[in-house]
Write a structure and sequence with these properties.
hpI Integrase, Chain A, 3 domains, two-stranded antiparallel ribbon, elongated
């Protein structure tokens, strides 16, 4: 099978799988969607290297095993020059899986390197809360939603792109709106999107909920009709595609990392979540379950399908109290400042309430009544209309002259500012001082009136009347 440059790896893999029912049978028998993708792409790359179809590879191993193993060994050594040991190992086990499907056991050991070593991650560090905040600030709405599902819920990128609205039972969907009943929100993961092939659920932090809601509401505003079957992550309505691939999102987030000045892979966002879980003080069994690992709760959930609601509520509260503070990208200082501002706002609202009550009491004591409208004779209206007409005619007649005068004044001021900036500054300062003096004068007048009003209210004779 020859390499076709015009087609993408995904398209070529799809053609290979759909062209042979036995290959499709092999793929469908694999456990998770991630494994299916990795194995099918691995086999495709070997067929393109060997220039043989999958069936021809099987025949070659059956008739000339030494030659076939030599070709596979050369293939592994060739790709190891450009790929990580883990990727090389995945390519090898992909071919071995296809051979085993055809009752061929390969016993030759082929060196793939140290698969526990990841050169691409040696200089990679997990982002801090401030660094993640910076990354989010450089992201668009869809990017923030994708980052949230990984960093604030712990999903693998391949799982995040397959989450549907029905997988988040806390969503309240109406024809023209979407809301959340609870935060943090519970998200369920199906077995086919779980690495160990078993269902589990996790929680999306309150901050992540806000980003996902904002993104979903933007899609509603664009005219999209959301349903429980809608994916949380999607292309825009202008695109003919309804869902986006993991690699597409990963490239998008990688570009966002670069703009934010952060060096790392999108997968490091999952490490951010795992680190928060490990440092949260949660019980070990909760930690294992939230990270999608096998454990006591996972076994119960797999067998019984549902945990008691009381336990789910406890897990949600534990997540909120212990994990969310480790995930939030708002700094402690910012949270403190927000709390202070909210406190001051409450104080101001209380003061405004008291002032309104005092004004109502004063109005009740003075029994303020609305004055009757002034009676204006028709002659006055005629004079006012005449004056307005004269002003309009004047401005219409002298429109060009007034415009020239305005331009001349602006030029004169610009020239004065260029020649004597100090004088201009003094003029502006004097004008500001006059403005402030006017405010003080009005304030003094208001205080004087208020003082007289209070004296009038406290006058026994007035109160008696």
């Amino acid at each position: 099978m020859l390499h076709t440059d015009e087609k993408s790896l995904k398209e070529r893999t799809k053609i290979m799988v759909e062209s042979d029912r036995d290959i499709a049978r092999w793929i469908n028998n694999l456990r998770s969607e991630s494994t299916k993708r990795i194995y099918s792409e691995g086999l495709l790359k070997f067929t393109e290297y060997a220039k043989q179809s999958p069936k021809e590879i099987v025949t070659n191993f059956q008739t000339n095993k030494k030659e076939a193993e030599d070709i596979l060994t050369d293939f592994i050594h060739e790709i190891s020059k450009k790929r990580t040991p883990k990727s090389v190992h995945n390519a090898l086990v992909s071919v071995k899986s296809w051979l085993l499907h055809n009752d061929i056991v390969m016993r030759r050991k082929i060196n793939c390197g140290n698969i526990k070593r990841a050169p691409t991650t040696e200089d990679e560090s997990i982002p801090t809360q401030d660094e993640l905040n910076r990354i989010l600030n450089y992201s668009d709405l869809r990017g923030k939603a994708f980052i949230s599902l990984i960093a604030f819920a712990g999903f693998r990128p391949s799982t995040a792109v397959n989450v549907k609205l029905r997988d988040i039972p806390d969503f309240i969907i109406t024809p023209d709106s979407i809301n959340l009943a609870k935060k943090p929100a519970q998200i369920k993961v199906k077995p086919e999107f779980s690495k160990n092939g078993r269902p589990y659920f996790t929680f999306l932090s309150s901050e992540g909920c806000e980003y996902v809601l904002e993104y979903l509401r933007s899609r509603i505003n664009e005219g999209e009709k959301l349903t429980p079957e809608s994916k949380v992550l999607s292309y825009s309505l202008k695109s003919s595609r309804h869902s986006i691939a993991r690699t597409g999102f990963s490239r998008k987030i990688k570009r966002t990392f670069e703009r934010a000045g952060y060096n790392g892979r999108p997968y490091v966002l999952r490490s951010y979540f795992d680190t928060a879980i490990l440092n949260s003080g949660l019980s070990f069994i909760y930690q294992q379950f939230f990270m999608g690992h096998a454990g006591t709760i996972e076994a119960t959930y797999t067998v019984n399908k549902n945990l008691p609601q009381s336990q789910i509520d406890d897990m949600r509260q534990q997540f909120k109290d212990r994990v969310e503070p480790k995930l939030e990208t708002i700094t402690v200082k910012a949270r403190s400042e927000i709390a202070i501002l909210n406190s001051k706002l409450s104080e101001r609202e209380e003061e405004n309430k008291e002032l309104k009550e005092r004004i109502a009491q004063i109005e009740a004591k003075l029994q303020i009544k609305q004055r009757p409208p002034l009676e204006i004779s028709p002659d006055v209206y005629e004079q006012m209309d005449k004056a307005r007409e004269e002003m309009r005619e004047y401005f219409e007649t002298h429109k060009e002259e007034l415009a020239k005068q305005r331009i001349q004044r602006e030029k004169a001021f610009e020239q004065l500012q260029a020649d004597n900036p100090e004088i201009v500054k003094q003029m502006l300062d004097a004008e500001q001082e006059m403005y402030l003096e006017d405010i003080e004068r009005k304030k003094a007048e208001a205080e004087k009136i208020l003082k007289e009003l209070r004296a009038l209210i406290n006058n026994p004779k007035v109160n008696k009347k």
